[in-house]
Amino acid sequence: MDLHQKITELKKQKNAVILAHYYQVPEIQEVADYVGDSLGLSQKAAETDADMIVFAGVHFMAETAKILNPDKKVLLPDLMAGCSLADSCPPDAFRTLVEAHPDHVVITYVNCSAEVKALSDIICTSSNAEKIVNSVPKEVPIIFAPDKNLGKYIQKKTGRKMLLWDGACIVHEAFSMDKLLKLYKEHPGSKIIAHPESESHILETATYIGSTAGMIDYVKKHPAEKFIVATEAGILHKMQQEVPQAVLIPTPAEEDNTCACSECAFMKMNTLQKLYDCLLHETPQIEVSEEIRKKAILPIERMLELSK
Ligand code: 13P
Ligand code: SF4
């Protein structure tokens, strides 16, 4: 049996579910029970009746699944799979900001630690951030963390002034404007689609801005066109399966002279072998203290309720 078959057998035996993000390597996406964006993955984690969740994504995603499922084993193939955005918001510094603004509602992007979630009022993802911000009465001031690019974009869309945390994603901040414009010239008639973690000068060039799932849906509505895709290159696997006729061109990073795409080194730490090993040995597991979990689940549940 090859690794794919062995994982399929094992997950049946153990009643495990494999949830994978679109940025995972293709062979992991192919063995997963569900591949989605951060919101879809949280929704699946909230409703699964499997005994064990194997999270093929990064640490904050698996942690969110654990917060929602304290009695299930939640496994992450590589515990070092972190996130620059989550790391840009240390809980102690965030607590200081929140405590200094007691009249503000705290909306936090899901890319953050359980401790930061525990200090928040509502969690959001890139697919529901606008709706979540609009759910807060107009006169109430908002703290938005940790992604300043998503924050600026939502500020512009909603007209709300928000106090923004100064965090960013290393992958989405690295796109090269010059290379993007060069590609656009080389591919006349192409459309630029971008993830809102990208900087505003990149977003200004885009015909469509949305979460990974939103970008795939957009391309599905225009299957015969050419797209320059400004997000992590792992998305191209599912996107191309959905629209085999479309021409999909990844946006390169400024510094990247070796390949013409942008990859998240954290997302790519998970491999099919590590996925098999973690399912077999049921380790590494995600743990969240009950004290933090009880606080962190409230803003996640608020998000899930507002996203129905
Ligand atoms: P979404 O899949 O929710 O758009 O998030 C993208 C991302 O950067 C996850 O780390
Ligand atoms: Fe974090 Fe960016 Fe990687 Fe997503 S792509 S996990 S936001 S570092």
Automatic annotation (TrEMBL):
Name this polypeptide is given: Quinolinate synthase
Free-text remark on how the cofactor is bound: Binds 1 [4Fe-4S] cluster per subunit.
Positions that bind [4Fe-4S] cluster: 83, 169, 264
Protein family according to the UniProt entry: Belongs to the quinolinate synthase family. Type 2 subfamily.
Protein purpose: Catalyzes the condensation of iminoaspartate with dihydroxyacetone phosphate to form quinolinate.
NCBIfam families the UniProt entry points to: nadA, PRK09375.1-2, PRK09375.1-4
Originating gene: nadA
Native source organism of the sequence: Aequorivita vladivostokensis
SUPFAM superfamilies referenced in this protein's UniProt entry, alphabetically: NadA-like
Stored HAMAP family: NadA_type2
EC numbers, comma separated: 2.5.1.72
Reactions catalysed according to its record: iminosuccinate + dihydroxyacetone phosphate = quinolinate + phosphate + 2 H2O + H(+)
InterPro entries tied to this protein: NadA, NadA_sf, Quinolinate_synth_type2
Coiled coil: none
